[in-house]
Design a protein that fits this description.
- The protein is an alpha/beta fold.
- The chain has 15 helices and ten strands.
- Strands 6-5-4-7-8-10-9 form a seven-stranded mixed sheet, sandwiched between helices.
- The longest helix has 26 residues, at 157-182.
- The chain is globular and about 75 Å long.
Length: 352
C-alpha cells in the first residue's frame, strides 16, 4: 500500500473513532450542566481558576479535581468553554463562550433542560439495531423503560417535569422564529387552540404579540395540572384523538412527528371539524425533512427523525411529499410551506 493509501486508511480510522467516541462529548456537556459549571463561571463575572470552580460545586466533599480538569480540557477543545493562561504562573483561567451561555440554568433561553433530558434519551439508543430488525413492534423507549413515553411521563413525576420544562424551553426558542417568520399569519385569527401545547408557553407568546387572540392551551390532563396561570390563555385538558376544541385556527407544534401516519390523519380530520370550513386553517410547526439537504439544520433533522422513531410508535420526521399525502388524506388539499430560521418549518394548511 502506498503512502497515500495508508494516509487515507488512517484518516478513515480516525473519523470512525471520532464517530464512536462522540457520546463522550455529549456526556461531558451533561456533566457540565449537572455540576452547573457555566453558572459558576457566570457568577464570578470574570475568568475563574479550576480551584474556584471546584470549590463552588455543591455536594462534593471528595471532588476529584484532576478528573474535573480533564473534563474541562475536553470541553475547551469542543469550544464549550474558553481557557486563558496567566502570564506569570501559567495557571488556567476559564471563561464562557457563545456555546456555554446556552447552558446557564437561569437564562430565558437556557438549553439546560434539553441537555438533562438527553441523559434519559441515551438509554433507548442502545436498541437502535433491534428496532430496525423488529420493524417497529416496540419502541426503543419502551425497551429501555418498560413503558411507552406518555405512560412513563404520567407515572414518573421527575421525568414529566423535565419533559415539560424542555417543551417550555422549546416554545420560548421557537416562538421568536414563528412570530417573526409568520408575520401577518395571526392577524385575522380571533381564536386559536394550541393542541399539545404543554404548559402553555407557546400560546402565551402568541397572545403577547397578538392580544386580540383568545387562546386555548389543550393537552393531556396530567400535563395541564402543571400549567401555570397565563394571561389570555385558557388551559383545557383532553385527548386530541377524541376531540379538539373549536377555534378559527389549530396550532400544532412538534406534535405530528410523534404520531403514526394513521394517527396524523385522525388528528388532522379532527382539526378540520374544529375550524370554520371556509376561513379556518391549521398551522403546523414541524420538521420538513431534506435527506440530501445541506443547510445547517439538516443533519440535526436526520437525528431528530431517528429519535422520533425510537421514542414514539410510528413517529418520524417527514419530507414535503410525505406531508402533502398526509394533509390531503386529513382533509387539507391546499398548503403553504413557510421557512423560518429554526429546525422546524411552518406548514399552513387549508380545508379549501
Amino acid at each position: 500500500m502506498g503512502s497515500t493509501g495508508a494516509e487515507g486508511s488512517i484518516q478513515g480510522l480516525l473519523e470512525i473513532g471520532q464517530l464512536l467516541m462522540g457520546y463522550a462529548d455529549s456526556m461531558a456537556v451533561i456533566c457540565a450542566v449537572e455540576l452547573r459549571i457555566a453558572d459558576i463561571i457566570h457568577s464570578h463575572s470574570s475568568l475563574v481558576t479550576l480551584s474556584q470552580i471546584a470549590s463552588s460545586i455543591d455536594d462534593s466533599p471528595s471532588l476529584d479535581i484532576s478528573f474535573l480538569e480533564r473534563i474541562m480540557a475536553l470541553l475547551v477543545r469542543k469550544r464549550v468553554f474558553a481557557v486563558h493562561h496567566q502570564s506569570d504562573t501559567g495557571e488556567a483561567l476559564y471563561g464562557l463562550t457563545p456555546l456555554s451561555r446556552w447552558l446557564l440554568h437561569d437564562s430565558e433561553l437556557s438549553f439546560a433542560p434539553m441537555v438533562q433530558l438527553q441523559k434519559k434519551y441515551v438509554s433507548f439508543w442502545h436498541y437502535l439495531s433491534q428496532c430496525v430488525k423488529e420493524g417497529g413492534t416496540s419502541t426503543g423507549f419502551k425497551k429501555a423503560y418498560d413503558f411507552e413515553v406518555w405512560e412513563y411521563a404520567s407515572q414518573n413525576v421527575e421525568f414529566n417535569t423535565l419533559f415539560n420544562r424542555t417543551m417550555a424551553y422549546d416554545s420560548r426558542l421557537i416562538s421568536k422564529a414563528v412570530i417573526s417568520g409568520y408575520k401577518d399569519g395571526f392577524n385575522n385569527i380571533r381564536s386559536l387552540v394550541d393542541v399539545g401545547g404543554g404548559t402553555g408557553g407557546m400560546a402565551a407568546e402568541i397572545v403577547k404579540f397578538y392580544p386580540h387572540i383568545k387562546a386555548i392551551n389543550y393537552d393531556l390532563p396530567h400535563v395541564i395540572t402543571t400549567a401555570p396561570p397565563l394571561d389570555g390563555v385558557t388551559h383545557l385538558g383532553g385527548n386530541m384523538f377524541e376531540s379538539i376544541p373549536n377555534a378559527d385556527a389549530v396550532f400544532l407544534k412538534w406534535i405530528l412527528h410523534s404520531c403514526s401516519d394513521k394517527d396524523c390523519i385522525k388528528i388532522l380530520q379532527s382539526c378540520r371539524k374544529a375550524i370554520p370550513e371556509k376561513t379556518g386553517k391549521v398551522i403546523i410547526v414541524d420538521v420538513v425533512l431534506k435527506p440530501d439537504g445541506n443547510d445547517p439544520f439538516d443533519g440535526v433533522r436526520l437525528v431528530s427523525d431517528l429519535t422520533m422513531r425510537l421514542v414514539f410508535s410510528g413517529g418520524k420526521e417527514r419530507t414535503e411529499l410525505e406531508w402533502k399525502k398526509l394533509l390531503e388524506e386529513g382533509g387539507f388539499p391546499t398548503y403553504k410551506i413557510i421557512p423560518i430560521p429554526a429546525l422546524q418549518t411552518i406548514i399552513e394548511a387549508y380545508p379549501y
